[in-house]
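Input record (one chain):
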Amino acid sequence: MSDDDIDELDDFDDVFADEDVDGPGGVRTFSIAELADEINEVLADHFDEGLWVWGEVSGLNFKNPHTYFNLVDVDGRGRKVQVSVNLWGTEMKKLRPTLMKSGLDLANGLKIRIFGNLDYYGGFGKLSLIMRGIDPNYTLGDIALQREELIRRLKETGAYGRNREVELNPVPLRLGIVGSKGTAGITDFLQQIEESGLGFDIKIANVTVQGDTAPVEVSSAIRALGRRDDIDVIVVIRGGGSKTDLATFDSELIAMAIADSPLPVFTGIGHQIDVHVADEVAHESHKTPTACAVALIEHVTRFVDDVEGAWSDIASRAGQLLDESGHRLSKVAREIAVHTRTAVDRADERLSDRIDRLRRRAPQLLAERSLAVDNLEKRVSLLDPVNVLARGWSITRAADGRVVRSVDDVKVGDTIVTTLRDGTASSTVVDASSAHVPRKSS
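The corresponding structure, as predicted from the sequence alone:
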């Protein structure tokens, strides 16, 4: 037992020294009401200036206008210890500006350091701390330490930058949204997307984005969307809120879901100044849901502009090539025209030369042709039957006008007509025997 403990017992002796002693062994007997009063009197004397305590918020319960919770810790033996805390409505009204300035809200699991006075309420037989103040720097420092520790572990395991290595579709039009429907954050995001006029296809996973169940819901939604093949980008959205509410996105569950996602994850969480572990591990992080929507729109419009620019370059180059081809074609046409005219001129010259030569040779050719005709006439004349008959030859025909060339052409009794130089003679065949023509010996 320490000296402080001894002094405390001495205080109890002082308190009870003047009281009546009527119990066994000379110890005073108290009624329960008296005991409650005595305990509170001792607490007031010993902690007359109040006290600071720290621990983790548990069992948070709001009963307007009052707030109740337990402040929990673990002792040296690993056992859970706790004290009840009552925050009256009047005190909450005084503390609200401090909480708002630091961006804090009371929440289960939050580590806080608070100031107050101890009170024993006989009606419940319960010792409580009446909260009158809070040290926000303690909580903010603890949040920052937890965040830094998580980031350190993520870096050590390689999860920290994993999602940034996932390839982003150059036209991220198919979006899987993780957020709470009807909230200002998701409403602002969807309005910005709609006003872009681009053909975005949106699927929404409706989740709770604050509270005890939020980390499980958000991480499960990210993993579920990551298994789909009809999504280009997962977008995690959460509008503004207190640091306590936004601390959901410092959860290791959410951080690992983003790191493991096979799809790129964009975040648009909180206010301009907020940075969370989810932002640290995301493919892209943006200050607000609206800023996230603007970034996605810029990705798509940049691709559209690049495509249109490429088509413009192609059209320009095609026009240039057509112009160059037209110039070359015109040049070839001109060259062909020149060569054609030259060829025609040369052909004209050759034709003129041939005509001149023909004109000069025409008389000689006519004379030669006339002589040839005379010779032909003479030859024809020699073959004329009249001339042949004049030389003593005759032509014999049958009654039907056929020329008789062989005894086989007539028979005995046939009438034949013989044409002579100066007339014809008819006769009757009395004998039609063939003459023997001896063969020439070799």
